[in-house]
Specification:
heterotrimer; A alpha/beta (247); B mainly alpha (340); C mainly alpha (299); B: 340 residues; mainly alpha; two-stranded antiparallel sheet; globular; C: 299 residues; ABC transporter involved in vitamin B12 uptake, BtuC; 12 helices
Chain lengths: 247, 340, 299
């Protein structure tokens, strides 16, 4: 069975600096896959390459058997591959509901459909998803006035609103109050189990990723260092060295 | 009262005033006609600027297209445009009767609208591919370059300008232009008001707030941006056609492509009234027109200096404008009310 | 077009055009350097850059009309404009330093309008010059004329530029300026009063422009409306050359000067401004298109 996402021998350099070198990995459908590595190992660069944020130097990236390394960002998003940002990006001046409404999938609509009313079937679903992440009471507030953690939840809800097939999350628990992390993890699991969304997660929090992911890839110095189940990674000496050595 | 209700009330009051004004203030028809056109300038600017985040200093290129296209069509229906401009137009050799004049106008205005919108589509994907300050200064360059280039084109009169076709003296042009401008302002306001309540309105706000995010969520932002600019251009083209006729004489850099005056003023109007709101540009245009007329009448000689000072003061001290100020006050009152 | 044929028949004309272009180009380079300074340090695009040049020019004109040699006008204009720029910062500019770029563009645009119109009121719209009393050299059998004062202006521009670069590299103030431009927060942490640095930088830029203006008044002409074209030229040069690359700034400036002259000859003098502003649009569009192919955009 072909994986939902296939990354083959992808390399990317900026100026003289090699950010990713010859990386190959796979994300099977319906699974939760982790991506770890010390700071500067090229995780976010790899994410950016996959979603089309910049062109890659060499290699191939296939999503649902389709080559996407030459596609532009909106086209990749429309195929059902979404990502969340490390710094959490939402539409600050718009209300939470409006943020949700504009995140409805464009996959099956034509340009002219943009000229329909804002209120409609989407509002109900937006309310449901906002309830799902616990932001229902704040739905008419401007998104920019939310706390950082709440914005992260909003970004997650917006991603769900878009009906993605696969969601790539860049450090979803970074900056979140530790007491709220469990709630977020729970929602991620439910998104995967109930909505069938494949997850590919960059994480620094080892406790989180070891509990969440079924398979983990570890990057170091721009290269793939190791991969395996959480237990295998936990005990892999190379991974331990990479993290300790980085300090 | 909700903001939408307040907006509607203001709109109806203004529209009613607009219809009645020629009878109440018959001596100020020219200034009021200009006011309705300014409202169109400000509203269309804000659609692309305040609502979408693309602050253009060059929307005058669409006004200029309208100015020249309408005049050229008005002339071309009856005479050779080159000859007309070589002879500096007007006089006894180039006469227009009522019917001819109206026909020219009726054809010229829609064609201006379409030509302006086409220009936006043609250059839009290149120019709107730039962001922030680069877009602002590029459009500034466009506006002024257009004026300078028009000033060298003999066919439309070059630097000497072009006389707009005149109808017979008895024809009530003042009334005609007044109600044309008022009508255009009303239609522009209603159309943009509707547009902002569609998903397109959400999309352009999303582009303003975080364009990269909008793209990452699957929006074809280039298409959306160009459409918004083309819509603005459409209304500006018509406004330009009326404006040129109003001024009776087209100077390439002062009337057609006024990059350092109207091009900047429309930005000021939107900010003064409240960027990114539907009523803001309207209020801003009204305040600006009153202030400008005041300066021109009582500060003659120093009126432009005063305008420059006004720009600095507004931008530095009141960047949120009238509507922004009112919203803050409402929010403060709500919070104070909850505190009790 | 007959003018192009003229150029082909008599290539010596090209020498004239380019030599004139190089000489004005040096002044462009200086003004562009000042704009890059303010942009890099304070993140402000100073739309009234050209008006500072214009003001400096009027200082020289005024001094010449009072009987003083316009060469003295260069340092006097620089000092006066430094004070003016410093004061302008303390009253207005400091309020817009941390706001978004659009606000700074609009505010400095407003200031440029005020300055333009004030000078229009004070001196009238006529073209003015500060007579230097220098003559002309004739070379290539009289086919190419080189105005001596333009050569002096060219040399002075380079000297001033050199002094500037030395000052920024070696002096304590210069180092503080460079530190702030690289990382304002870090500079503050290290004890640098960034507000002070901003004020001095803005004043310094005004002084640079003032000196340019005096040179322009001596070697060319000035009137109240020369401002915006100078601003646009400086902006164009900075966009093409980048903020840090002095060599590129000089090359781009000299190139622009020559290109303008040649275009003015081929298209006619009345199209020279059209050329400058159109070139701006073309430069920006091309730059952005090249970035777009790497899926980026001008930032």
């Amino acid at each position: 069975m072909t994986a939902m996402l296939e990354v083959r021998n992808v390399s990317k350099s900026f100026g003289g600096v090699v950010a990713n070198h010859d990386i190959s990995l796979e994300v099977p459908e319906g699974r939760i896959i982790g991506l770890i590595g010390p700071n500067g190992s090229g995780k976010t660069t790899l994410f950016n390459s996959i979603v089309g944020y910049h062109p890659i130097d060499s290699g191939s990236i296939r999503f649902k058997s389709r080559e996407i390394s030459t596609l532009l960002v909106p086209d990749i998003a429309r195929l059902g591959l979404l990502r969340t940002f490390q710094q959490t990006r939402i539409y600050g001046e718009m209300t939470c509901v409006q943020n949700m409404l504009i995140s409805v999938s464009e996959r099956n609509s034509r340009f002219i459909d943009l000229f329909t009313s804002q209120t409609g079937a989407g509002v109900e679903r937006a309310d449901e998803l906002l309830e799902f992440v616990g932001l229902y009471e704040k739905r008419f507030l401007a998104a920019g006035t939310l706390s950082f953690g709440q914005q992260k939840l909003l970004e997650f809800a917006m991603a769900l609103m878009n009906d993605p097939h696969m969601l790539m999350l860049d450090e979803p628990t970074a900056g979140i109050n530790p007491t709220l992390i469990n709630g977020l993890i729970e929602r991620l699991r439910r998104a995967n189990a109930e909505f069938g969304i494949t997850l590919f997660v960059i994480e620094h929090n080892m406790r989180v990723i070891m509990n969440l992911a079924e398979h983990i890839y570890c990057l170091a110095h721009g290269e793939l260092l190791a991969d395996g189940t959480p237990d295998q990674i936990r005990n892999d000496q190379r991974v331990i060295d990479a993290y300790l050595g980085a300090h | 009262m909700s903001e939408t209700r307040a907006n509607l009330n203001v709109f109806f009051a203004l529209a009613a005033f607009g219809v009645a004004a020629p009878f109440i203030f018959p001596n100020y028809m020219a200034q009021m006609t200009e006011l309705w056109l300014f409202i169109v300038f400000a509203l269309t600017w804000d659609l692309v600027g305040g609502q979408m985040g693309y602050n253009s200093f060059g929307n005058v290129i669409f006004i200029g297209i309208g100015v020249y296209a309408t005049a050229v069509i008005q002339v071309a229906l009856l005479y050779d445009v080159g000859d007309y401009n070589a002879a500096r137009g007007g006089g006894t050799s180039f006469v227009f009767n009522e019917m001819q004049y109206l026909e020219g106008l009726a054809l010229g205005l829609p064609v201006s609208a379409i030509m302006a919108a086409l220009l936006a589509v043609l250059i839009g994907s290149a120019v709107l591919g730039m962001r922030g300050q680069y877009f602002a200064i590029c459009t500034l360059g466009l506006g002024i370059a257009a004026g300078e280039i028009a000033g060298g084109w003999e066919w439309i009169g070059a630097g000497s300008g072009m006389t707009v076709p005149q109808p017979p003296p008895a024809f009530p042009t003042t009334r005609l232009f007044y109600y044309l401008s008022l009508g255009l302002a009303v239609i522009t306001f209603l159309f943009i008001g509707w547009l902002l309540r569609t998903r397109f309105g959400l999309a352009i706000n999303a582009i303003r707030d975080d364009e990269d995010k909008a793209e990452a969520m699957g929006h074809y932002t280039t298409r959306i941006k160009v459409t918004a600019w083309a819509i603005a251009a459409f209304f500006l083209g018509i406004a330009g056609g009326i404006y040129g006729n109003l001024k009776r004489f087209i100077d390439p850099t002062d009337v057609a492509f006024p990059g350092q005056t109207i091009g900047v003023w429309m930005v000021l109007m939107a900010i003064l009234g409240g960027k990114g709101t539907i009523l803001g540009p309207v209020i801003g245009a009204i305040i600006f027109q009153f202030t400008k007329e005041f300066f021109w009448t009582y500060l003659l000689g120093w009126q432009r200096v005063a305008l420059g000072v006004l720009i600095v003061v507004i931008v530095v001290f009141f960047p949120k404008g009238v509507v922004g100020y009112m919203r803050n006050r409402r929010a403060a009152r709500l919070i104070a009310g909850q505190g009790r | 077009m007959s003018n192009i044929d003229l150029l082909i028949d008599a290539p010596i004309l090209l020498v004239q055009l380019i030599s004139d272009g190089l000489m004005i180009g040096a002044i462009f380079a200086l003004a562009a350097f000042g704009m890059a300074l303010v942009w890099g340090v304070m993140k402000i695009i100073n739309i009234c850059q050209g008006e500072f040049v214009m003001l400096g020019g009027y200082v020289a004109v005024w001094m010449a009309s009072a009987g003083v040699s316009p060469f003295l006008g260069v340092p006097v204009a620089a000092v006066l404009m430094f004070i003016f720029g410093w004061l302008l910062y303390q009253t207005i500019i400091y309020r817009i330093v941390d706001h978004d770029l659009f606000i700074s563009i609009l505010a400095t645009f407003g200031i440029s309008i005020v300055l333009q119109q004030l000078m229009n009121e004070a001196f009238g719209a006529d073209v003015r010059i500060a007579e230097s009393g220098l003559g002309t050299w004739f070379i290539f059998g009289g086919l190419v004329t080189i105005s001596q004062v333009k050569v002096v202006a060219f040399v002075l521009a380079f000297i001033l530029g050199g002094v500037l670069v030395y000052f920024l590299k070696k002096s304590r103030v210069g180092q503080a300026i460079r530190a702030t431009s690289q990382d304002a927060r870090a500079a503050r942490v290290l004890g640098i009063n960034t507000n002070h640095v901003y004020a001095i930088t803005y004043g310094l830029n005004a002084a640079i422009c003032g000196a340019c203006g005096a040179l322009v008044a001596m070697a060319y002409t000035i009137h109240p409306y020369i401002g915006l074209p100078y601003t646009i030229r400086s902006f164009m040069i900075v966009v093409v050359a980048g903020l840090g690359n002095l060599g590129a700034v000089i090359l781009a400036s000299l190139g622009l000067g020559s290109a303008e002259n040649i275009a003015g000859f081929i298209l006619g003098a009345e199209y020279q401004l059209a050329f400058v502003f159109s070139l701006l649009v073309i430069v920006l569009v091309l730059r952005n298109w090249r970035l777009a192919r790497k899926r980026q955009y001008l930032k």
